[in-house]
Write a structure and sequence with these properties.
two-stranded antiparallel sheet, alpha+beta, 2 helices, two-stranded parallel sheet, 84 residues
Length: 84
């Protein structure tokens, strides 16, 4: 659903994951077309997700945020330590 080259936007139901289950998001093909983007990740609770996103190995199915490695230009701003 999120990697369909014919759709740049999808709506979905996140279920009980959030108090706001009805969502709309852009798809991976759209993000790959963006010329420049800013990623802002803040807070210790996001450390695990950010580390997975920045790893050289892994899949988009496991960590959709890894799409930033396929994007044209991404500036990442964070207060999270990502290396030991």
């Amino acid at each position: 659903m999120f990697d369909d080259p014919d759709q740049w936007v999808v709506r979905y139901d996140a279920g009980e994951k959030s108090p706001y289950p009805h969502r709309v998001t852009v798809t991976l093909p759209f993000l790959r077309q963006v010329d420049a983007s800013i990623v802002y990740a803040c807070g210790k609770e996001k450390q695990g997700a950010l580390i997975k996103t920045l790893k050289l190995r892994g899949t988009l199915a496991e960590t959709p945020g890894r799409v930033i490695q396929e994007m044209k230009k991404v500036d990442l701003f964070t207060d999270i330590p990502v290396s030991g």
